[in-house]
Design brief:
Number of strands: 18
Helix content: 40-55%
Radius of gyration: 37 Å
Largest sheet: 3 strands, parallel
Structural class: mainly alpha
Distance between the termini: 98 Å
Strand order of the largest sheet: 2-11-10
Strand content: 5-15%
Length: 579
């Protein structure tokens, strides 16, 4: 009905169509009602659907040479791709398996033009299309994308211009982003990313693409299809999917709600390391919560790590790895155990890193700093580091262990605490001695010293730590009751099973240092259960090591010191084997 409505916009024509139907007696009923309708997300205006010719990439068209279709190539590529997390495989597979043909054209003014000339009657491409595309590309390279707007059919086709029309469509933006592998890995970074495949074929493929979970229908999807078109395979070996950031209550961040946390503001206030640590310690496979309260906890975790590093580096200040190196066989048992524990942890961390599982790796590192080091090993080590002679085997043994532990700990931390790890690395004794150590980021994880008895040490000291935990609880009860002050004021009687008795007997000379008490005795319990008796020491406190001992004041020249401290200061020094 062009005579009645031709030239009118849809919104002007709608009421006239209704009124015309009423005038003709063809309208039974008319009523306005509110309903949902598609709107442009950018302009917020209603979207009008219309039928128009489009350009497609056929998903199931079989090539003339009998090779697989685009869909078959893409699905085969998915089977060869690693997914992190694993559920991404089923998600992408379902989208590829069930999708229709890919509509490549868009009807808009902005974007990359589909620079074709088509026959006015048949719609067939001009026979010189490949040549014409090259000419158009040269003009665009010279004058910018606007050059296509000024080109006419007459400019390029000559006498054929009367039979052909310039294609007005632009290219789907997902095709643009989906071909970045071509422009980057074969373009701007061609030489840097060149490699040979294991099977001997040459190529440029990314080790990993990572993006949000919506990209299974976006960038991951279009990159897979364009890679299959060009190379018959995906442009990536692995895909990593992360969730979206939400507030502490799980709500999407919105300016109108006022729950947006800007990364720059966090960095300005708390430092970039806090953002890095938050990201690394959060399970990115789901929604990632952030709030001021969560950031406060991250700050506390960071302080715990930094304080651990400060202790390690401070106690290595006078350590020269070349001069003070000791063979592992000369180390004290607890030092060998702690290095075995760190080596075991590194194996676990490496597996997590290879699988892009950062939050469990960070969790284990935090536990190592706070529990294995701060809550156990370093707590016990302080007496040996602070009271024994500078060059004694006991003190240098501890430093040898700390040297290896701190070196590897910094390397574990460097992927997410980059500035902290680099700053600490330049204070690390190894740095000044190694002309090749330009930065921690040029270092590999490396290996710990070999410990032949590593597994037996791990089992033995794990049990000792379990018993020590019970001891700590018993001491704390006495402290709360006001019977003792610090743990060094306590004397212990530890009654344990026959097996535990034999184990504790093996470290008995140093057991009091493990329990951080002034005296520790053991006995076999009658029922096999652990029984711990805590009583206050009756002896005087040494002013130097704070242990309560019967020989405090035995030397009139040092009335405030115990015999151990006197020996460590001016005599042969004490001997330690275990702790």
């Amino acid at each position: 009905q062009l005579a009645l409505f031709g030239g009118l916009s849809i919104w002007d024509a709608n009421p006239k169509i209704v009124s015309t139907l009423a005038e003709l007696g063809s309208l039974m009923h008319s009523e306005r009602y509110t309903h949902s309708y598609m709107h442009c997300w950018r302009h917020k205006s209603p979207i009008i659907y219309r039928a128009t010719n489009q350009w497609f990439a056929g998903m199931d068209i079989q090539p003339a040479d009998g090779s697989p279709s685009l869909r078959q190539l893409a699905i085969a590529g998915i089977e060869k791709t690693q997914f992190f997390p694993a559920w991404g495989k089923a998600r992408l597979h379902a989208m590829i398996a069930n999708r229709p043909d890919w509509t490549l054209s868009r009807q808009r003014q902005w974007g990359v033009p589909m620079a074709f000339f088509t026959h006015k009657q048949t719609g067939v491409l001009h026979p010189r299309t490949a040549e014409l595309l090259e000419e158009i590309a040269r003009r665009v390279a010279k004058d910018g994308i606007e050059a296509w707007q000024t080109i006419t059919a007459q400019d390029l086709l000559g006498d054929d211009a009367k039979d052909y029309v310039k294609n007005p469509d632009t290219l789907d933006v997902w095709f643009d982003s989906g071909t970045t592998h071509w422009h980057v890995m074969r373009g701007s970074h061609r030489n840097a990313l060149y490699r040979k495949e294991s099977e001997g074929t040459e190529g440029r493929w990314a080790d990993l693409y990572l993006e949000g979970s919506d990209q299974h229908r976006g960038w991951f999807h279009s990159s897979l299809l364009t890679g299959a078109m060009l190379d018959g395979k995906p442009p990536y070996r692995a895909l990593l999917t992360h969730g979206f950031t939400v507030d502490g209550q799980g709500r999407k961040m919105s300016k109108s709600v006022g729950n947006v946390i800007a990364p720059q503001e966090v960095a300005d206030k708390l430092g970039a390391e806090i953002i890095r640590l938050w990201v690394a310690s959060t399970d990115y496979s789901g929604e990632m919560s952030i709030s001021d309260e969560i950031l406060k906890r991250v700050v506390e975790s960071y302080r715990r790590i930094r304080n651990t590093l400060r202790f390690l580096l401070a106690n290595l200040a006078d350590f020269d790895p070349q001069t003070h190196h000791l063979p592992v066989s000369d180390w004290l048992e607890i030092d060998r155990y702690s290095v075995a524990l760190a080596a075991d942890l590194q194996n676990t961390i490496e597996v997590h890193y290879r699988n892009y599982e950062f939050h469990p790796a960070v969790s284990k590192m935090l536990a190592f700093c706070s529990e294995d080091l701060g809550g156990f090993y370093l707590d016990i080590l302080k007496d040996r580091l602070y009271t024994m002679p500078t060059n004694s085997v006991g003190r240098r043994s501890a430093q040898n262990a700390l040297f290896h532990i701190s070196q590897h700990l910094l390397k574990w931390l460097s992927p997410f605490l980059s500035f902290t790890a680099e700053e600490a690395w330049k204070c690390y004794p190894h740095f000044a001695k190694s002309i090749n150590s330009v930065s921690i980021f040029t270092e590999e994880f490396g290996s710990f010293p070999e410990l032949k008895d590593a597994q037996s040490l791990l089992a033995k000291w794990q049990r000792i730590r379990e018993i020590r935990s019970d001891i700590t609880k018993a001491i704390e009860l006495q402290r709360e009751a006001g019977i003792i002050g610090s743990s060094l004021q306590a004397e212990l009687l530890i009654q344990v099973s026959a097996a535990d008795f034999e184990m504790l007997q093996s470290i008995l000379p140093d057991l009091r240092f493990v329990t951080i008490t002034s005296k520790a005795e053991i006995a076999k319990s009658t029922d096999g259960n652990i029984q711990i008796t805590v009583k206050p020491s009756v002896y005087q406190k040494c002013a130097r090591c704070w242990h309560h001992s019967a020989d405090v004041g035995s030397d009139p020249n040092h009335p405030d010191l115990c015999g151990r401290c006197i020996s460590n200061l001016g005599g042969a020094g004490e001997l330690r084997q275990y702790a």
